[in-house]
Amino acid sequence: MLKRWRDARVFERSLERTENGPRWTFYEGPPTANGMPGVHHVEARTFKDLFPRFQTMRGFHVPRKGGWDCHGLPVEVAVEKELGLNGKKEIEAYGIAEFNARCRESVLRHVDAWLEMSERMGYWSDSEHAYRTMDADYIESVWWSLKQIFDKGLLVRDFRISPYCPRCGTPLSDHEMGQEDVYQTVTDPAITVRFPITELPAGTNPALSGADLLVWTTTPWTLVANTAVAVHPDATYAVARKSGDGDRVVIADDLFARVLGDGWHVAARFRGQELVGTRYSRPFGLIKIPDAHVVVPGSFVTTEDGTGLVHLAPAFGADDMETSRAHGLPVVNPVRADGRFEEDIPLVGGMFFKDADPRLIADLDERGLLFRAHQHEHSYPHCWRCGTPLLYYALPSWYIKTTAIKDQLLEQNDLTKWFPATVKEGRYGEWLRNNVDWALSRTRYWGTPLPLWICPDEHVTCVPSLASLSELAGRDLRDLDPHRPFVDSVTIACPSCGGLARRVPEVIDVWYDSGAMPFAQFGAPLRAMAEFEASYPAQFICEAIDQTRGWFYSLMAVGTMVFGRSSYENVLCLGLLLDEQGRKMSKHLGNVLAPVPLMDKHGADAMRWFFAATGSPWAARRLSEPALAEIVRKVLLTYWNTASFLVLYANAAGWPASAAASGDLSLLDRWVLSELHSVVRDVTSGLESFDSAGAGRRLAGFIDDLSNWYVRRARRRFWDGDPAAFATLYECLVTLTCLMAPFTPFVTDYVWDVLRGSGSVHLASWPSADTSFIDTSLTEQMRLVRRLVDLGRSARAGASVRTRQPLGQALVGAAGFGTLPAELRELIASELNVVSVASLDDGVELVDYTVKPAYRALGARFGSSTPAVAAAIGSLPPADVAAAVLDGGSFEVFVDGSAVALGPADVVVTQTPREGWAVASADGETVALDVTITPSLRSLGLAREVIRLVQDGRKTAGLDVSDRIWLRWSAADADLIEALTTHGSLIASEVLATDYGFGTGSDAGFADAELGLRFWLRRA
Ligand SMILES: [Zn+2]
Ligand SMILES: [Zn+2]
Q1: Between β-strands 541-544 and 570-574, what pairing exists: parallel, antiparallel or unpaired?
Q2: Cα 807 to chain centroid, rounded
Q3: pTM of the full predicted structure?
């Protein structure tokens, strides 16, 4: 099939066919090809393929340009590992040009595996013209868009505290901090340290003189850079005095008891404001921090834990930074970008920040400044990529001020349709409402370089293209590789002052790259502007739910900033894929299933059906091999067998395929066509609203209706070559094949070819529902018929009467039965294998009731009178008691001359079908079968057995379904001989015998010991 699609250029032709149709734009969220594709990629690609196929069949033009995400830290980390490099210093020593060349090579390493997986699953995408985020055209588009943002004043440099990975040497963005595994529970030292007061502002409470400020911290290493202590100006603080030695410490009043406990008492109380301006002796004098070490007010201080006095190290905390800035305190950072203290610092020089804790604590202890120390379990962030503990670190960084366009983003979100709808105001809306500026820059190597040049006077020039860079640099750079290090060596004359401007060293967040794909995939607007304009915004994007803060956000944010509107209208969020045990599939757990072998085993169609149709797209689902095997068995094979049946009998009957149902339609034909059209209607509206699961349920239901009801009931007509039956089944199958094509493109195209003799279902038009075929009352009637048949079958099973044994009559009690057309009543009779079906008149009792006293209940109520009550119950007609209590009512008995009311709890009613009847009831509907087997019924039953044996014999003899036969039989049993004679013409017509009679053949023939029958057959 894949070869057929390739050879016939079916995908290309499906695009050409719709070229003049309206656009329906889909954006491919680019995967990174430096990893192998997994089953969860098949999940995403199933939906990314299904809806475009659906819309294409409806006449929309849906170009599907593939794409690859090429940049980013994950790529760099993988290459670092391969090369055995550790950290940025080693990368730079290795050479940025060579390092980036390795990155470039590695990102497309698994493209072949991706293409193989995509082709195998039937994912149609234009991979030949796929965009790559590392191409110069793409990067130029990104530069152009950054220039738009820069010109709006939204791209700014700021010195901020960011979570920072010292190993990777880069800050982590907020969406990276939202990754799983970032926060881990670790045990760190928590220490309470004395900061001795050295100088009090005039007029302060004298009790403070000579006291120590108590400060609590879980990051002892930050004490090296202590710059100030913050107190809440409105909180109450206390000077506590220790009984005996007169030791005095300062602490928030609320925390007095918890931190100090017995042996201490309050010497004085005052407001935090009074402490402001107090000077203290800092815990370590290892580095120079001028004009500092003073108590400042801070409204962020709480008195819920710690001591209510907070140590500030402005380079390592956002509150610290903000408060220090507000009070003109210096920002001193003794920790290098690799997470180690500067070499020349005494005590901790060259140590990794966290490793310095024990040494610092010991030193505090020696100097009598350690008030208390213990181990503290808390949640601490780690790099999601490499696992290194993060530090909060002051970095100059470039930001996009997304907070300035928050209202616009919320507006755009309002206009967006989310599937499921809850994400809009929930997960995603929450994210937008708490929007923070986008930390855009990364101090790394393999990424889109930030196109900013800066002169010694700090004039910033944003360059939108290589052409513009050529102009500014005064040489032709249009063929320059815009990556580092090549672009780093380009200097320009500052347009403001003429000074020598150099590029800032940073590259940008890869999420910006992918957010720019709507225009950058075409190189627009520098190139292919028309193509871009025709495909913006997208009608459909689809990725896993974890992209809410990733691609879904970056696409919307970039689109809104650059073009004033979001890049997409509908977004489908996919649920997680779990393994059989319900665990997330991850490389970590080693439970990732390789997609291609799984598809080779069960078929790509089964896998696609599993994802698209067995649960809502956004629900998590468990993938297992048994689940796939069941889809093959229940859905795909049933569909396949129905199509094979049609082809087999149509060929046998010489029926010429024609599209429209003609001839005399039976009620069954009209019913199945009514079902067909309502399925077309429902599947269309389901897929329009991205409900592939609802659509899949309707399709699976119809396949079952068609095979297990329509074909089953109409089988005889196919044998007889009834053109109405052929035309009806043909129309159902052709339409069903179209409806299923976006789900299971392989089997449907095969069936299409067999049914139609040429072409591809993927070039066909989507069927439209003709509501004049839809007959809801017929649907209801057929539902009733099928319920009654189910009841009849269970009645027969309860009475252990073989299915092939015909019975005399079935009586039915059900609302709506009286108005069933004769044709449907006959259908019930034939399905239940009874001679006639009639209405169960009221008053005809098919069961006998026995009523026994419930002694336990009666005993509790009547005590010693119980036997008398029981006797009275026994004297009543059981049917009357049953009639009363089965409806939940009551009845009366007379005991010792007085009336006693009894209810359902006082008796035990058992029903036994009346002799000769088998009864089944459910929900107010009853079917009763007369199971008395008269001699003539027994004879007919024997004839049916013979028919079955002869049919088996035909198969064994390898005869075609339409072959007419010569048949001879012999039997010893008188009843059997009678049946073979009386029902001779029935048997002959059922088994297509043109020559039928008593006698023997020349060979061994066929024999059935149980029945005592022998027969011989051959092609007539
Ligand atoms: Zn890291
Ligand atoms: Zn300048």
Answers
A1: parallel
A2: 52
A3: 0.78
